[in-house]
Task: inverse folding
């Protein structure tokens, strides 16, 4: 099964993955890097993973970091050390694909330099993600396996540094010697933690003989190919990204899209249902809507069904999980965008990502609910299902992993 964000990220995928992880032997991250923040709560303690798959510490599940990611080795080591303090030996349950590309210190410098040079900044997290993927595509990157051949690594860094000096001159502070030492030290730290290395070729038979949960990063509307370009991330945010682990989407039994009961977005870019002022601030405070990676306040909007239909088609969603339903508790009237007006044409589904830039939302208003056991909340769920023709199978009503229920459980509680 794959779990992906059905909006602009920050939908609560980490908690949802954690909830389902009991039923899977492998949890696999297939895209993104340290720009993704997946928050989980375990034994009343909060853990924010930027690199690691959201495995449950008390389970037997193992984690795999796939070649579609870009690894920030500092962040990876930090996250492993945090988990090791509470769960000694857990690092040995993580495997990393040797083909994975690395985020290097100068990528973070480039991220800041380029963002500062833009007339209209795109809202990057400055974690070096875009420059790392750029180097991957332009064949100037470093793969993980280079760290195990120091001569090959030195030669590679020499060539890359020569090119970057021609690009940036003295703007880059990191030297090739510093980057080399950084990488070797990171390798030694990972070896000390007993992390495993493998490739998707070696793991293919293992994955296909057991159960695998693929954990996506960000959301479909931030996908490099089909999101609101250029205000997107630099990788695949859709289920199709499982191809980087050697899988086809045809091998997936289910693709769950995670959505909030409202909509949020971090950074720049179009946001058709955005709201402002006190109305937005109330939801921001109630929902704790601040980026897990950057701490930036998230932009707030009403639920956007045309965008959800777009995500359904783009990523082949077979079911939905709705989160933060409790944040809307006590609001008298709830708005839901059901259609877009695009240059005087009414559309149920955007034809392309361009439509998000010019869309004007058309709303319907629903009665609010006191809590998620209220009949009006069930009507809200049914309204979404009817308008999108996709079932909401699970409901999250709080931040803890166990604060999830099936729609059938919800119905039974309401009937009581």
Result:
């Amino acid at each position: 099964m794959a779990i992906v964000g059905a909006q602009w990220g920050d939908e609560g995928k980490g908690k949802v993955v954690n909830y389902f992880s009991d039923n899977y032997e492998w949890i696999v991250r297939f895209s993104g890097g340290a720009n993704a923040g997946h928050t989980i709560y375990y034994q009343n303690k909060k853990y924010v993973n930027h690199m690691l798959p959201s495995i449950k510490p008390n389970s037997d599940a193992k984690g795999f970091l796939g070649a579609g990611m870009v690894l920030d080795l500092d962040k990876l080591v930090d996250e492993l050390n945090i988990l090791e303090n509470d769960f000694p030996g857990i690092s040995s349950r993580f495997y990393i694909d040797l083909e994975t590309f690395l985020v290097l210190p100068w990528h973070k410098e480039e991220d800041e330099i380029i963002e500062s040079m833009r007339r209209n900044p795109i809202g990057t997290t400055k974690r070096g993600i875009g420059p790392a993927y750029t180097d991957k595509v332009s064949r100037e990157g470093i793969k993980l396996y280079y760290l195990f051949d120091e001569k090959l690594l030195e030669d590679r860094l020499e060539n890359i540094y020569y090119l970057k000096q021609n690009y940036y001159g003295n703007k880059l502070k990191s030297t090739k010697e510093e980057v080399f030492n950084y990488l070797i030290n990171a390798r030694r730290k990972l070896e000390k933690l007993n992390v495993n290395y493998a490739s998707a070729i070696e793991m293919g038979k293992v994955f296909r003989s057991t159960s695998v949960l693929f954990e996506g990063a960000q959301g479909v509307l931030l996908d490099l190919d089909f999101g609101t370009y250029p205000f997107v991330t630099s990788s695949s945010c859709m289920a199709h990204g499982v191809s980087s682990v050697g899988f086809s989407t045809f091998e997936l039994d289910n693709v769950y899209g995670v959505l909030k009961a409202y909509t949020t977005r971090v950074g720049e870019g179009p946001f058709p249902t955005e709201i402002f002022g006190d109305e937005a601030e109330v939801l921001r405070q109630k929902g704790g809507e601040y980026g897990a990676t950057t701490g930036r306040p998230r932009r707030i909007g009403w639920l956007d069904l045309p965008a959800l239909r777009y995500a359904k088609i783009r990523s082949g969603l077979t079911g939905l999980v709705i989160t933060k339903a409790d944040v809307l508790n006590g609001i008298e009237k709830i708005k839901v965008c059901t259609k877009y007006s695009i240059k005087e044409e009414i559309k149920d589904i955007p034809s392309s990502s361009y439509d998000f830039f010019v869309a004007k939302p058309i709303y319907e208003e629903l009665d609010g609910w006191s809590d998620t056991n209220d009949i009006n909340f069930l009507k809200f769920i049914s309204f979404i299902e009817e308008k999108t023709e996709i079932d909401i199978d699970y409901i999250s009503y709080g931040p803890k992993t166990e604060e999830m229920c099936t729609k059938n459980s919800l119905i039974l509680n309401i009937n009581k």
Q: What stands out?
A: Residues 259-415 form a domain with the Adenylosuccinate Synthetase; Chain A, domain 3 fold (CATH 3.90.170.10). The chain has three domains: 2-100+196-255, 101-192, 259-415.
